[in-house]
Give the backbone structure.
Amino acid sequence: MFVILKDIISSFDNFLGNHSGSIKFVTVFGSALAVYKSILNTKHLRQQADIQRKIENNRYKLELFDKRFRVYTEFKDKVFSSTIDINSSIEILEVTHRKLKYNISQIRKCLLLFQSHEESKILNEFSLETENFAMQIRNAINVKTIIENKNHVCEHLLKERDARIKGSDEYQRYDKELKKNTKEVDVYKQQYLKYVYIMLNKPHSYNDFRHECEMFMESKLSAPEQAFDDEKGWIGTSLDYVIKTGPIHERVVMWVAVAACVLFLGVLLCS
């Protein structure tokens, strides 16, 4: 039993003595291969993580594009102002005011989705311009309402005065009240004209401003490009990873292992 075991050990020692160089080479080559395989496994795990990141990033970009395109379309189709003239009725002014209030809500939606861009200040400025425009319209409505109410009072006073005997105390009292209200109407009319003249060119400049905002948002609308590049073959991908794309420390380890393997092979060949 022990003789057989001794013969096996002796044969193994002879094999090691006769093929020591080959065994060392295979050991070094196997170590280099193990290092290479380990690096490729690490690369595969990192690649899987990158794919997940790209998928999530691309999904976010698609959702953002969809939301931006929706508010951009609503802005383009619905945000504008009506024409205002000096004889615009309260009803027309009210419609314009409601429209501007609606515009403000639409602009705020756009700000939420486009404010990441530095140039989005144009939307902030347009929002402020819209609020200012709406405030001027509201002021004009208030003044015009006062004028119409005063005109009704003046009509009533005129009827009451003409129903009295000219020169009587009642006549004098209504006449005095009529002149007072007529004078107040004239003052309010001047105030109203001031608001109207300010707003006469407002719709034109306002719609030009709106067009600039539209162009800005259009320039920021872009659908995501292809999520993933076409993959090379495994050989090309592995070479790229070892030569260019892999982390520096992994590439250094790989090249040191290859260099050691080549050096050992050279020593064997020269010995």
In short: The first helix runs from residue 2 to 18. The chain has a mean pLDDT of 75.
